[in-house]
Amino acid sequence: GAVVSQHPSWVICKSGTSVKIECRSLDFQATTMFWYRQFPKQSLMLMATSNEGSKATYEQGVEKDKFLINHASLTLSTLTVTSAHPEDSSFYICSAIAPASAKYNEQFFGPGTRLTVL
Amino acid sequence: GENVEQHPSTLSVQEGDSAVIKCTYSDSASNYFPWYKQELGKRPQLIIDIRSNVGEKKDQRIAVTLNKTAKHFSLHITETQPEDSAVYFCAATIKAAGNKLTFGGGTRVLVKP
Q1: Chain A contacts of B34, Cβ < 8 Å?
Q2: Which of A50, A47, A34 is nearest to A110 (CA)?
Q3: CA of B34: which chain A residue's CA is closest?
Q4: Rounded Cα gap, residues A54 and A63, in angstroms
Q5: A107, A101 contact by CB (below 8 A)
Q6: Mind listing the pLDDT tens digit for each residue in A73-82?
Q7: Least CA distance to B3: which residue of chain A?
Q8: Pair B102, B35: CB distance under 8 Å
Q9: Cβ of A110 and B43 within 8 Å?
């Protein structure tokens, strides 16, 4: 149980275009999802906390108008990278907390999306 | 906010030897400390975790210790195997702060056969 999927797994786009990444909890309802960004050989950096039915909370330094997050249902959160540029190329990973999880605060991670902006 | 430091950044061990990775955290309110293993291009996988009310936890070849007073926790892998080669991340979270995870910088472990 507690499976999180992401789509697409990889995407290549031209500079200036927008890209949408989906994060789904497949077998549980997630009131809270998180979006992370990971550059090569670096750690995961939290971008924002996505709460179902409300606005996302962004970490300091993350542009909310550039990284649009929508958590419209208990099983789906989307991250849209608007007007993408080469420096946005990264590995984007989502995670979700299952409210009924037996583990304490455990987050379940999606497989990640590799974004390359040309 | 929380800050998590992780050492060493790289670790090379001979197969069968032990590996130890250490992390320190800054916020005494942190109450959950997971460890993740990440292979190249894959998602982080939880390998063990510990809560703030426990000092030590073991799962087969993996153990984690927590010293709340000193605000540090460590991962111990015994009898290392080549398949243990990966990047390991420690993390800390404060439930009262919305369960946000703060990750350490990562340790690249190489187990030489």
Answers
A1: 106-107
A2: A34
A3: A106
A4: 17
A5: no
A6: 889 999 999 9
A7: A45
A8: no
A9: yes
